[in-house]
Amino acid sequence: EIKQEVSLMSKTVNGAYRDRDQAKNTWDDLIATGIPRDNIYIDEDAKLVKVIVPAETEREVREIFDRHGLQ
């Protein structure tokens, strides 16, 4: 029996935010999309939302960032 294992490459997607509300709304949207909380980080010093996702999910994260005006 041959088992085929699919290895998913993870990617960190960063988006710069202006204020806490923008970051919180983005966080809520990412969670609602099904991204695990443990994969979402808000770096308050750098003002970045960082999301670790499989490469094929990157586009969806970028769409959420665009919707909330993250750069």
Topology (elements, then pairings):
Elements: E1 10-16, H1 20-33, E2 40-43, E3 48-54, H2 58-67
Antiparallel strand pairs: 1-3, 2-3
Written description of the protein model:
This protein has 71 residues and is an alpha+beta fold. It has 2 helices and 3 strands, in the order E-H-E-E-H. The chain has a 3-stranded antiparallel sheet with strand order 1-3-2, with helices on one face. A hairpin with a 4-residue loop joins strand 2 (40-43) and strand 3 (48-54).
> Would you tell me the structural class of the helices and strands?
alpha+beta
For the largest sheet, list the strands in their spatial order.
1-3-2
Task: Give the low-confidence spans.
Answer: none
Instruction: Please report the total strand number as a whole number.
Output: 3
Largest sheet: 3 strands, antiparallel
